[in-house]
Write a structure and sequence with these properties.
CATH topology of the largest domain in chain B: MetI-like fold
CATH architecture of the largest domain in chain B: Orthogonal Bundle
Strand content of chain A: 35-45%
CATH superfamily of the largest domain in chain A: P-loop containing nucleotide triphosphate hydrolases
CATH class of the largest domain in chain B: Mainly Alpha
Helix content of chain B: over 70%
Largest interface: A-B, 44 and 34 residues
Distance between the termini of chain A: 40 Å
Oligomer: heterodimer
Number of helices of chain A: 8
CATH topology of the largest domain in chain A: Rossmann fold
CATH architecture of the largest domain in chain A: 3-Layer(aba) Sandwich
Distance between the termini of chain B: 54 Å
Structural class of chain B: mainly alpha
Shape of chain B: globular
Helix content of chain A: 10-25%
Number of domains of chain B: 2
Number of strands of chain B: 0
């Protein structure tokens, strides 16, 4: 096991900068997820760590061994690194049985016969695939293939483990089970792990820290809860979870922690506790999670929130709850409620604290 | 479980040291160099000789363009060029018409037994044009079986193989399978809904065929037309057998007569004509490449490989079936059948009852002559061993071009495909010069290895064509996984990529075996006493007028190829075309 140090990593494809000056330190035994939409540079970063792509600039070091250093002209080919990579496609060799697949990295390391057999048995037991040792990959289900791919990687004790969207080829039910299994395995193994995904639930539930990437840059690094509750910008807020964005103008500024008074496009006003104070008259965007807002009870909202009038644009029953589409001063809002909305207009309750204030107009959130 | 986990997470070994020079480097550079030498060896001497006033092996000469002027002034050379163009053009027309009609009839209609007929239609593809010519001669030649039978019923036979039209007919039929394959594969990947739309809007079977199906095939027809025109230019056997006696000379026979059979060959003239031919074929191959780019753009509109619904022929079903059977009988079964029959008879004529002439004497005589039994033996050695060596080289080229970070892989790919543009006769002349020039290669010159080398160079593109599509289907993740786990490029290639390519390599070996076994146009410039192969022996026997021995030797070739193809198809299920 080892720590991973990335400094100023840059990778260009023709004129496109896929990874733009990324720096990151992953501690020994830490589980870090690279999260972002397709094309954000997360897979390119992973390929650069594994050595499958040679980066154009920067430095990669694992456990004190320099894998790549553009300035000193150092590039270790993938076979001279000590990475374990599980591919999105699993990449099991179709002409070898499960046991042969797992034996391959051991035979490269000239591990003697008896020890080789013992380690294959152990690692297959770890992923609960010992009964399938003599099967060929095409005789296995997707979830089983994924376990074998992981076993094949763990068997040679890599310094760091790289997982490239390992759950994305599974169907929804299987994915939930595999995620739970992976979470359990991760607490047992405590390997330094880089996990690449575009699925926020995987990222939030598995990781020690999440790195949200956008356009080749790091948008935010933090613990899952921090990323979800205090997104650094509208992109992170939008990408992690469903978010309602409201454009507004500051009419009553307040110091940090005080209540700022905002006015919406149709003149309705609301109060928000902002961590970052905004200047009087400036344009801002306020973001709410669907679970933070609700239909206002009869006769007023109380001291801790503002009540605003909205139009109902859609309602659909999604099993247990109703999903209600609203129009608030020209901005679409979504919330879930136990009961179908009674009438139109609908009175909506927004909490004073919990919403996050961003500088700039609503287009920043798009 | 936690005990297991604890052991699995044991401390990792230190990363392996980085070798100063990875193993991949000598393998990749070595292969590239070998291919460069193979391709350049025959071309440089030809191009150089065309610019010299004396023979290449003399020590004093000057660079000159005089050879080109001399060639232009050579009496009858204009006629040679005209004949070449006419023969290639007419051959193309015959091949395209027959191939396109067959593709539609066998591939797209409810013609009875369409699959079987399609298989028979492909036969000429597997046989050498040389053997096919002998077959046609045995049926339609001046003393051919049908030519003699015909007058007794219908008056004088209306055909004459010893003419441009006759040769174009033989060549066209032997090349029609190419047009057929391209049109068929184009038909299976175009979107069937395009035709269904036409039918729904009220177009009948033949209107739909004419207005929708055929225009959609146009790119395939055009591409295979250029391909067939190129092959028509390179043809040696048919003009040699039917053209020469009638005084019709084309470029290939011009090269053959002035370069090989002439007692005092004019090297400047031969090399210049060869260089000219090389330029023309280079241009045509370039044109093919451009058109293939265009057809791809055109075809991928469709997408899914669904089998479109067959057209109903209605009342014409059985008449068209009869016509198709007659065509197959007349162009494939009769020539080959008669040739095989001739091999087992002392004399074949409709006037003499078959029972009186049946004999195995031809084969006995054939094997009595050491020259001819050696030719058969050599053919097997060249094809089995040479084919295996060539397959190994082609597999190596394929993984370097498609599965490595080799810096010059683009150049290597281009180089490996270049022999497509080198006609067999030009390659033959070129290797002849190369081996005459280079000292120390004298030993090779009189052995069959010179043939193995020349054949390998000639058929690298065909072999790559069989291997590359499969290699591109193997996910690159499979090699990346091995690399990340610690295997270098060569180990990955040996243990992951090459084993996965096994079916493609078997297909490649079969194609090379068949190609080497039937090859004659290059060999004819290179063989020496002791290194004869079936192709060269056939031509020698033909010149001596030994019709029975020619038929026997040709039969050996046909049967060997048929057995080989049937075996590979049966055992491995490998498709050998398309």
């Amino acid at each position: 096991m080892a720590d991973l140090l990335i400094e100023g990593l840059t990778k260009r494809f023709g004129g496109v900068t896929a990874v733009d000056n990324i720096s990151l330190h992953v501690a020994d035994g830490e589980f870090v997820t690279l999260l972002g939409p397709s094309g954000c540079g997360k897979s390119t970063t992973l390929a650069a760590i594994a050595g499958l792509d040679q980066a154009d600039g920067g430095r990669i070091e694992v456990g004190g061994t320099v894998y790549f250093d553009a300035a000193r002209g150092i590039y270790r080919p993938p076979e001279a690194r000590s990475c374990g990579l599980v591919f999105q496609s699993y990449a099991l060799w179709p002409h070898m049985t499960v046991a042969d697949n797992v034996a391959f990295p051991l035979s490269l390391r000239k591990v003697p016969g008896p020890e080789r057999r013992r380690r294959i048995e152990e690692v297959l037991a770890l992923v609960e695939m010992e009964r399938f040792a003599d099967r060929y990959p095409h005789q296995l289900s997707g979830g089983q293939q994924q376990r074998v791919a992981l076993a094949r990687t763990l068997v040679y004790h890599p310094a760091i483990l790289l997982l490239d969207e390992p759950l994305s080829n599974l169907d929804a039910k299987l994915r939930d089970r595999a995620r739970a299994w992976l979470a359990e395995l991760r607490t047992r193994l405590r390997l330094t792990t880089i996990y690449v995904t575009h699925d926020q639930i995987e990222a939030l539930s598995l990781s020690d820290r999440v790195v949200v990437m956008n356009g080749g840059r790091i948008a935010q690094v933090g613990a899952p809860q921090e990323i979800y509750e205090r997104p650094a910008d509208p992109f992170v807020a939008d990408f992690i979870g469903t978010t309602n964005f409201l454009p507004a103008r500051v009419v009553g500024a307040a110091p940090a922690g005080g209540r700022t008074l905002l006015e919406l496009a149709d003149g309705q006003r609301l109060e928000v506790v902002a961590e970052r104070p905004a200047a009087e008259g400036s344009r801002v965007t306020i973001a709410y999670r669907p679970e933070q807002i609700r239909v206002a009870p009869e006769g007023g909202g109380g001291e801790d929130g503002s009540v605003l009038s909205t139009h109902v644009t859609s309602r659909s029953y999604i099993g247990g709850n109703w999903q209600i589409g609203l129009d608030l001063a020209g901005s679409p809002m979504r919330l879930e409620a136990r009961q179908a909305p009674a009438g139109d207009p609908l009175r909506l309750w927004l909490p004073h604290s919990g919403g996050i204030l961003f500088q700039g107009g609503a287009d920043a959130a798009a | 479980m936690d005990a297991i986990a604890a052991r699995v997470e044991a401390a990792p070994a230190a990363p392996p040291a980085v070798p100063r020079i990875p193993r991949a480097v000598p393998i990749q550079y070595g292969t590239a160099l070998l291919v460069l030498v193979l391709v350049a060896a025959p071309l440089l001497p030809v191009l150089l000789q065309s610019l010299l006033d004396g023979a290449l092996y003399e020590h004093e000469y000057t660079l000159t363009l005089a050879n080109f002027a001399r060639l232009a002034r050579t009496e009858g050379f204009g006629q040679v060029l005209l004949n070449t163009a006419l023969l290639a053009g007419m051959t193309t027309v015959v091949a395209q018409v027959a191939g396109t009609v067959a593709a539609i009839l066998f591939g797209r209609t409810d013609l009875p037994m369409a699959r079987v007929l399609g298989e028979f239609f492909l036969w000429p593809l597997y046989l050498s044009a040389l053997v096919l010519s002998f077959g046609w001669y045995a049926v339609y030649g001046p003393s051919g079986y049908l030519t003699l039978l015909w007058p007794s019923v219908l008056g004088e036979a209306p055909w004459n193989l010893y003419s441009l039209a006759g040769m174009a007919m033989v060549a066209g039929v032997s090349q029609a399978p190419l047009a057929y394959i391209y049109c068929l594969s184009s038909a299976t990947i175009t979107d069937p809904s395009l035709e269904e739309a036409a039918r729904v809007s009220g177009a009948g079977t033949f209107r739909t065929l004419w207005r929708i199906t055929l225009p959609l095939m146009m790119p395939a027809i055009a591409y295979s037309a250029v391909l067939n025109f190129t092959i028509g230019l390179e043809l040696l056997s048919i003009p040699l057998i039917f053209g020469d006696p009638a005084g019709i000379t084309v470029l290939t026979t011009f090269l053959f007569n002035n370069g090989v059979s002439s007692p005092r060959p004019d090297h400047g003239l031969v090399a210049t004509a060869a260089a000219l031919m090389l330029l023309i074929v280079c241009f045509l191959v370039w044109l093919q490449g451009r058109m293939l780019g265009n057809t791809r753009r055109f075809i991928t509109l469709g997408g899914k490989a669904t089998r479109p619904r067959a057209f109903r022929l209605g009342a014409l079903r059985w008449p068209l079936f009869t016509l198709a059977v007659l065509y197959i009988l007349a162009t494939v079964i009769a020539p080959i059948g008669t040739l095989v029959l001739r091999a087992f008879t002392s004399f074949l004529s409709p006037m003499i009852p078959l029972g009186e002439v049946l004999t195995t004497g031809n084969f006995a005589t054939l094997f009595d002559y050491p020259v001819y039994s050696r030719a058969v033996w050599n053919s097997f050695v060249v094809s089995l061993l040479g084919g295996a060596l060539a397959t190994a080289l082609i597999g190596l080229i394929a993984i370097i071009v498609h599965r490595s970070e080799f810096r010059f892989r683009g150049a290597l790919h281009y180089l490996a495909l270049f022999p497509r543009a080198v006609p067999g006769v030009v390659a033959g002349i070129g290797f002849f010069y190369a081996f005459a020039l280079l000292p120390g290669l004298g030993g090779l010159r009189n052995s069959i290895w010179i043939l193995v080398i020349a054949f390998t160079m000639r058929f690298i593109p065909a072999g790559l064509g069989a291997v590359a599509p499969m290699l591109l289907q193997v996910s690159p993740d499979l090699d990346r996984a091995a690399r990340v786990q610690g295997a270098d490029w060569w180990t990955t290639s040996r243990r992951i990529v090459l084993p996965l390519m096994r079916p493609a390599l078997v297909g490649c070996y079969t194609i090379l075996f068949v190609s080497f076994f039937k090859e004659y146009s290059t060999a004819i410039f290179l063989f020496a006493p002791g290194s004869e192969v079936i192709g060269t022996a056939l031509l020698q026997l033909w010149v001596q007028g030994e019709a029975g021995l020619v038929a026997a030797l040709a039969t050996i070739q046909v049967v060997t190829i048929a057995v080989c193809i049937a075996a590979v198809r049966g055992i491995f299920g490998v498709k050998l075309h398309g």
